[in-house]
Amino acid sequence: MNAGMIPQHVIDEVLRRLDIAEIVGKYVHLSKHGKYLKGLCPFHSEKTPSFTVTPEKQIFHCYGCGKGGNVIKFVMEMEGETFPEAVRRLAGELGISADWEPAGRHSPSPQQQARDRLYEAYAYSARLYHYVLRNTDAGIAAMDYLRTRGFTDKMIESFVIGYAPPRRDTLVQALQRQGFDLAEMERGGLLRRQENGEYADRFRDRIMFPIEDGAGRIVAFAGRLLSDGQPKYLNSPESMLFSKSRTLYRLHQARPSIRKSRQVVLFEGYVDCIKAWSAGVHNGVATMGTALTAEHASMLRRFAEEVIVCYDGDDAGRAAAHKSIPLLEAAGFRVRIGMLPGQMDPDEYISVHGPESFVRECIDNAVSAIKFQLIYLRKSHILSEEDGKIRYLREAVRLVASRDSPTERELLLKDLALEFGVSLETLKQEAHDIRMREKKGKTGDIPGGTWNNVWNDKRASASLPNIPPTYVTAERQLLCWMMQDADTAAIVQERLGDDFHAENHAAIAAYLYAYYAEGNEPDVGRFIAYLQDDRLERIASAIALMDVPFGERELEDCIRTVSLVSVDREIERCMEASLHAAREGDVLRAAQILEQKKSLEKKRKELQRPGGF
Ligand SMILES: [Zn+2]
User: Fold this and answer.
1) How far is the CA of 21 from the centre of ligand 1 (A)?
2) What angle do CA 334, 287, 355 make, to 5 degrees?
3) If you measure from the C-alpha of residue 358 to the centroid of ligand 1, how many angstroms do you get, rounded to a whole number?
4) How much distance in Å is there from the Cα of 114 to the middle of ligand 1?
5) Among 51, 354, 463, 608, which residue carries the largest CB count within 10 Å?
6) Cα(593)–Cα(587) distance, rounded to whole angstroms?
7) Distance 260 CA to ligand 1 centre (A)
8) φ/ψ of residue 207, rounded to 5
9) Class of domain 249-374
10) 289: CA distance to ligand 1 center in Å?
11) How is residue 101 annotated by DSSP?
């Protein structure tokens, strides 16, 4: 049950020393309601709070989306970390030794050591560049430039913007003084090797923007040349830490906001991302000098359902946005496009029209993917000519036909019909024909737009009233008491053993027996950590929140309810078996089974009698 390589005592100490209310309070505004603290759930979008924290049990649970668990679980969900990652980081913050690799693997691999050194070097370089910008004469011109471009002190601080001076070896010397190996730093992308064999700074006379990975560690830089020259923009090369196709600028900081809104805004450049942040768009990320990849899309899909693509308003930006649509839709996103007028990029738009207008016009009023595709399509046809008009209409209808929603199709076709003076019926017929042809092309295939299907399914099942059978409630009740008291667990173990009928309940019971057998004290938060199974953790935390007072009578009732189901199932099995035996002509066997059935029925009667057993 031990979490891979993390010793139980480390997990225990983390749980003991961290207060869930304090940790959650960093992310969620909580208010007190009796034994609970309540707030708006950070994991799903809601207007009235259904997210609760119970300090007494050191657990959280959301009645809206069902997420729940202990403080480690909360941090894992918030930061997108694995269990070992979360424990390691929390232990580090508490100053608990992180040296817990089992014997034989005491020292990290040479590869890991090299990575660690490089992380350290990037962090150091970022601090150095930031210092040069803020505190030295060499940084004055860069500061002036940033101010004219609308960067405030707050932005410079929170994005750790820096300046790499023009000298050839500022960083070379600094890294050398810190004891870093220059050849290693060159391989890691911080330095360059000149033709004469000497090392030189890769970034010179550039405004420096540190790029972090998903865990918030600096893994690369983007540098913008301060004086005239080429290349104007330079990014770190790919390295053992940095992969363009997997890195999204600002993902680490934007994640809580993305998760909460289930929406992410995608930018083409880091400056757009920073400016949008200052305009209040905190769920924005940017690709780093590369087109959007399927890897980017699937990374984001873990946190969001909708993407707003907010690329430049020029032809290149529109083309890139157009290209991103099928990729994002394939990942299951609902896609909208922020329309920037007059060839502007988001940075310019915010400078000219202000942050409120940006949020309203480009984010809130972003158009649907299909609307954007139609606008885009128009640009490539000459609509003043009859021929161009027909070709446009035909392609437009094909696009519309690919949409799954009949209502959406109808509305879009109506617009087209009205604009081009064609009858709606004709367009509908054409769209219908296209859909039929497509369907034949891929028989048995579920049409695209999986997002819509998933969404609809979720809605449908959520609206169905769901009343659990009585034994399910009884099992939950038992588990709740068992988590709080070892003696109760022992009684249930003796009487029911693993005879829980809901599979998840049986699993939790088995874990509880093992947990107490190992000499552990009752502790809900600790037990949940012991489970290390996402599904079971959620169920256990929901169960732990049940507030049913314990009583001997109630305990007996619950055990009886659960036992009755077992007996009923046994009786059913007997009936089937005796029928089978009779059909086979095995009279003796049939008689034996009937005897068995009789004793089961007797047992059933006893169980039903109050105070029975
Ligand atoms: Zn929730």
Assistant:
1) 16
2) 75
3) 29
4) 40
5) 51
6) 10
7) 9
8) -75, 130
9) alpha beta
10) 35
11) P
Tokens of 531: 């489970």
Highest CATH level, class, for 8-94: alpha beta
Residue 25: name the closest of 63, 51, 64 by CA.
51
Token digits of residue 220 = 């690369």
First to last CA, the chain: 35
Rounded CA gap, 53 and 18, in Å?
Answer: 14
Query: Beta partners for 220?
Result: 211
Report the distance separating Cα 118 and Cα 7, nearest Å: 28
8-94 and 110-242 share one CATH topology? no
Name the CATH superfamily housing domain 470-608: DNAb Helicase; Chain A (1.10.860.10)
CA 50 to centroid of ligand 1, rounded, Å:
7
How far is the CA of 221 from the CAs of 153, 286, 389, 426, in angstroms?
A: 20, 14, 48, 55
- Segment-wise mean pLDDT, segments of 10 residues, the chain, 613 residues: 64 88 88 87 82 90 87 86 84 76 56 88 97 96 95 94 96 96 95 93 96 90 92 91 90 89 93 95 91 86 90 91 92 92 91 94 94 89 83 91 88 90 89 84 42 34 51 92 91 90 89 89 85 82 82 89 87 84 83 86 80 49
Instruction: Kindly give the distance from the C-alpha atom of residue 273 to the centroid of ligand 1, in angstroms, as a whole number.
Output: 27
E strand or H helix at 191, and its extent?
Answer: strand 191-193
Report the predicted TM-score, pTM, of the whole model to 2 decimal places. 0.60
Single-letter amino acid code for the residue at 574: C
CA of 525 to the centre of ligand 1 (A): 19
Phi then psi for residue 363, to 5 deg, are -100, -65
Rounded to whole angstroms, how far apart are CA atoms 205 and 170?
A: 11
3-state secondary structure of 336: strand
Return the amino acid letter for 203: F
Spacing, Cα 33 to ligand 1 middle (Å) = 18
CATH number given to 110-242? 3.90.980.10
- From ligand 1's centre to the CA of 295, what distance in Å? 27
**Residue 41 C-alpha to ligand 1 middle, in angstroms?**
5
**Using an 8 Å Cβ cutoff, are 471 and 453 in contact?**
no
244 DSSP assignment: G
Separation between Cα atoms, residue 10 and residue 2, nearest integer Å: 11
Instruction: Please state the domain extents for the chain.
Output: 8-94, 110-242, 249-374, 385-444, 470-608
CA of 72 to the centre of ligand 1 (A): 17
Q: What are phi and psi of 62, to 5 degrees?
A: -110, 125
